[in-house]
Amino acid sequence: MTIPPPAEIGLPLEDVDTPALIIELDPFERNLRRMADEVAGSGTDLRPHVKTHKSADIARRQEALGAVGVCCQNVSEAEAMVDGGVTDVFVSNEVVDRRKVVRLASLARQARIGVCVDTLDAVTTLGDVAQELGVELRIVVEINVGTDRCGVEPGEPALPLARAITEAPGLRFGGLQAYHGPVQHVRKFAERRKLIEGSAAKVRHTLDVLERDGLVAETVTGAGTASYRFEMESGVFTELQVGTYVFMDTDYTDNQAEDGGPFVDFEQSLFVYTQVVSRPAPRRVLTDASNRAVSLDSGLPTVRANPGLEYEKASDGHGRLILHDTNLDIRVGDRFFLVPAHCNTTANLYDHYLGVRDGRVETVWPMSSRGPGN
């Protein structure tokens, strides 16, 4: 069954079905432009991560502002982006199942496709499939710079993989993946900088090892919204895989800027639009923004521009709020915006974005890829 959007273009905000996922277009567009301007002339390319928005409409806007392509987290996201007209896609993850490798390699007939590896077996599978299909894949060796997730250790362990890639028909050695995910949630500015400096040192060591063997890494890709300046300053990163900057969320704004204040490089543009469905007690307010409307993996959402209301708990059918100021006139049917704690996983709950400007729906964008991913 096709899920209809909660509103049509031109509808006033107060007539939108709730809960709905709202993009305020003015701050959203400023975020896109600001990151594009930051990167322009820096010697570092922008390759935004679509795991944040999962939308080919947004990805094309990022490309129009200078992005060299996009990152995806899995094959289904890559398929959705290529189907939506994106021509350069990098899966910043390992793809090892042969059926998925075939799906990924098939996309290389329409777009430039890259993927990470951290085992020789993966190189073999990718090379065999690329040769069978007559395509070329760009293969990037992932090194562990602190995330302790995928990736070989920096330095010598990366060398056999890079050699194998250069020797495999259908594969091209594309460089290194060096993403330090936990840094994105380190609150103190100086600590984030120090950790990325450590990551950059590990990248330099790996590049030296490769170069002594005659191998050149054309790309070093990584970075995130909370650390992108440090990767740009490092002199070793050539691509930025920033994602959250388009929307922002409370987890990112809990980080500190250099002056000790909140991290406000980018503006909040993504909201969950909800309405009050019950006020059964003076301090208890129930809305339709349940745990199926807003992700709770990074904490509870906050109520925008209304400090008297606190989102306290979510159930399968309701969001329960506490009214700290009982003099506030909160009634059934009242509507307000919630700010998600994690924009990526909140977006994954919806089928459509509603782009709003001046109180009216201006765009309706389908979610190109959502769910667990495969």
List keywords for this structure.
374 residues; alpha/beta; Lyase, Ornithine Decarboxylase, Chain A, domain 1; TIM Barrel; nine-stranded mixed sheet; eight-stranded parallel sheet; 10 helices; 28% helix
* % residues in beta strands: 15-25%
Q: Specify the structural class.
A: alpha/beta
Shape: globular
First and last CA, distance: 21 Å
Query: How many separate structural domains?
Result: 2
Percentage of residues in helical conformation: 25-40%
CATH superfamily of the largest domain: Alanine racemase
CATH architecture level-2 label of the largest domain = Alpha-Beta Barrel
Mean pLDDT: 96
CATH class placement of the largest domain: Alpha Beta
* Main sheet summary: 9 strands, mixed
Q: Uncertain runs with pLDDT below 50, 5 residues or more?
A: none
How many helical stretches? 10
Order of helices and strands: EHEHEHEHEHEHEHEHEHEEEEEEHEE
Over all CA atoms, what is the radius of gyration? 22 Å
**Can you tell me the CATH topology of the largest domain?**
TIM Barrel
Number of strands: 17
